């Protein structure tokens, strides 16, 4: 299911694509895209956990139950779920402002995450970090675009020497490519042959600015400029993505940095209630959403879990909301 | 021993004693050994742990933070301290925040070295003293190199704290001698503070000058001329850690006239921070407000005669002390 396309420029750096593009398909109002393969139960449960967690957050915000802001990954849940078995406990993961899915895929801990976002006891970081500043074991998220790339390069340098075979994975977005830190770090990763996996979730919009209005050229072209291999993933099929990326991620562990670009869709607003995109763009995102597609392609499997997971998240929200306020210290402090 | 040699030896010792220690920066490798030769010999002796980087101050500071995050000791050299502005995000939003924003203390053994200050004709963007821009960041400590503080001990203190530090090195100190003062003066240490007094001048000086390491020799020049010409007795206090400053440690050494001298431009300075700390403790016991000495509110010119007019120096301190004593 992997197709290899021509490299994006004259360099010898491979740029390959996985899957078939999905998106706006004429006047169709139903789910769009090729049939999704059947998921393992645990993958489906995880996808649904992230989906219902994010939906619950928006509901809690709408009710005024949450402080500050948050950024949901609605529509992009399959990215960390697909990557999950490709990453091990020794690998470092650097997440960003849109990181709830990354955290849940690694730790399956909706209680700790919601407590962190709500400032309740049991919060991962005592309620100090909140939605976008989380650290647990080898997972760390920061709220400034591009900032984690040089830090991840430093961690990758450490791993290359102290724990060969482990890698540092950084999640960034299409908008992050506006930051110079990305290029400084890519340069180092290529120069020093660092085990750095850059996962780009290109959801077509940076807050409110369409990618076409903020990015000249392409992510592939930018990776090629540094001699860093680039992989384009247009599929939302978890099984297909895993198969396609397995060999490339293994090469990262040998010191060949990699940029994996997921062409994905942000279903929800940037944070909460601030979506000014044209209706047809939002409709196209909904049509290519894995959630509706999987319900359509595998109704029995989908419905076996969907309501159950929704109820589980409701129970998590009820339980966490009833906890006393956090005291500014993580449980491990 | 020259200050540069002392610093170079301190870095040799650090890399020797700590197998997890890294040093990284631009042009730090032999045979070049850094723009100011402070890293000379290090890459030959510790290949692999002394790393030459591209011209990417933000990235090299971020890499240092990543190394520190994974339990290593990291020293980053910014070629000219002026360029640390390019690493401000890494220091303000990542390294210093990481110590505490994750709900538990994350120790980071990390020092960012910044060759600082004017007096060498490098012009407006290679001569600044930017200490003030880093004051007041939780989780970030500021130190300044001094001829009275052995750099081995200073590095040990910076790393022991387990939080990122910026180390300001006034470039004019590199060629000066460690610890050497006019026979007129006696130097003693009280913890972090170096205390310099006029010999046999009695218990109570007329005025106390507080200055970071880079200003110390200029303050000593003013001390000498004030003593010889006016019989004014000055005590000089030189802290190694500028922020957070242990103001209480200053108190036993103070008198009712205090001057703080630094090379920074005016406005939001380290000196005003020190003055506030002292006013809060000594208001009513001081003869007047703590007097600040700093450079003029101007860019630092390249031509020597113009640079002299802008930078705070011996005569600026001399004049400020006389003004302060006049009331």
TrEMBL record, chain A:
**Which keywords does the record carry?**
Oxidoreductase, Thiamine pyrophosphate
Q: Which cofactor does it need?
A: thiamine diphosphate
Would the keyword Membrane be found if you checked this record's keyword annotation?
A: no
Record region (Disordered): 1-35
- Compositional bias, Low complexity, is annotated for 1-34
Q: Which species expresses this protein natively?
A: Streptosporangium longisporum
> Which InterPro entries does the entry link to?
DH_E1 (IPR001017), PDH_E1_Alpha_Subunit (IPR050642), THDP-binding (IPR029061)
The family database entries (PANTHER family) matched by this protein are listed as: PYRUVATE DEHYDROGENASE ALPHA SUBUNIT, PYRUVATE DEHYDROGENASE E1 COMPONENT, ALPHA SUBUNIT BACTERIAL AND ORGANELLAR
- Span of domain Dehydrogenase E1 component: 48-294
Q: What is this protein called?
A: Thiamine pyrophosphate-dependent dehydrogenase E1 component subunit alpha
TrEMBL record, chain B:
Co-factor requirement: thiamine diphosphate
Q: Which InterPro entries match?
A: THDP-binding, Transketo_C/PFOR_II, Transketolase-like_Pyr-bd, Transketolase_C
**One Pfam family from the UniProt entry?**
Transket_pyr
Question: Which key words are in the record?
Answer: Oxidoreductase
Q: Has keyword Oxidoreductase?
A: yes
Q: What is its EC number?
A: 1.2.4.4
Q: Name all Transketolase-like pyrimidine-binding domain ranges.
A: 1-176
Known SUPFAM superfamilies for this protein?
Answer: Thiamin diphosphate-binding fold (THDP-binding), TK C-terminal domain-like
What PANTHER family does its record include?
Answer: 2-OXOISOVALERATE DEHYDROGENASE SUBUNIT BETA, MITOCHONDRIAL (PTHR42980:SF1), 2-OXOISOVALERATE DEHYDROGENASE SUBUNIT BETA-RELATED (PTHR42980)
What protein is this chain from? Answer: 3-methyl-2-oxobutanoate dehydrogenase (2-methylpropanoyl-transferring)
